[in-house]
Amino acid sequence: MLSWAGTTEMDPAAHAPRVWFVLDALGLVCATATWLLVMSEGVVLLCAWLLPVRHPAYSLVHGSLFYLLAFLALASHARTMLTDPGALPAGAPARPGPTPGGPHCPLCGAIQPPGAHHCSVCERCIRGMDHHCPWVNNCVGEDNRKFFLLFTLYTALAALHLLLLLGVPALRAYALGEWNLRTTVQPRGSLVFLFLVALKGFLFAAVMFTVQIHTILTDRTGIEPPQRQRGAPGLVSPWMNLKAVLGHRPSPAWISPFASPEPRAMSLQL
Length: 270
Hints:
This protein is mainly alpha-helical. Helices cover 49% and strands 7% of the residues. The protein has helices at residues 25-53, 56-82, 145-175, 189-217, 238-246, 264-269; strands at 3-6, 19-22, 117-119, 124-126, 131-133, 138-140. Helix 3 (145-175) crosses helix 4. The relative contact order is 0.12. It is a multi-pass membrane protein. The chain crosses the membrane at residues 21-51, 57-75, 147-171, 191-211.
């Protein structure tokens, strides 16, 4: 049993997990590394850049912006990791042959609606499964896709802010002739580390965010075939597809990792 979920007796929908956590060694290592990298960026930025410049307004503005984005990124990561992605109730493995109520998963016995797939790490079938991401130690599915999208968005924005914060002064100094390839002055190792981590984080998060936006707007997942069958269940427009993930009406809750989206069925009706 690699995943753990708990419910409360007072919950009328007792089959819906209130707490979700995947016990996977690789996922725990990757998720911990993600938090350590983001927090180490914050420490290095403060000690090697914001404090030495000795301009309170500059440090306050850029520090506040980065730490806000980093906080939102980690909050989104935590919501993605600890939210049930849409696990279907498991049952006895189905016997060969047709069964009532739809196809059964031969591994966990769950009745699979369209778009559901079995995850070998979570050992459950997940509604609207896009992929299993070790960096969030969870599947990305119908019920936590918004949080994963926000995680990639805020990670990309925080990394881009660092790249501009470090890169613009270097380019300005190079343009003014204050630094060139023959200079004996070398940048501090901490700032090189910060720049490289930010560059890697930006490339990874920006690509993932772009992929997620494309698949959401086209109502696909990462493991579905490129072309949907005509007449298959789906939404009528990219705008409706986006609202099904973020919420039925545009609001600040769309960009908040603390606001849970409405159930997909409700979003389809509104």
